[in-house]
Amino acid sequence: MKSKGFFIAGTDTDAGKTVAAAAVLVSMRACGIDAVPMKPIQTGAIVHDGTLKSPDLEFCLRMAQLHPDADQLQDMAPFLYEPACSPHLAAAKTGRQISFDRIHDAFQRLLRAHDQVVVEGAGGLLAPICGDKTMIDLMAMLELPVILAARPGLGTINHTLLSIREIERSGLTLHGIIFCETTPAGWGEIEQNNAETIARIGKTRVLGRIAYMAELKAGGETACRDFRNLVLRLIS
Question: Between 12 and 147, where is the model more confident?
Answer without folding.
Answer: 147
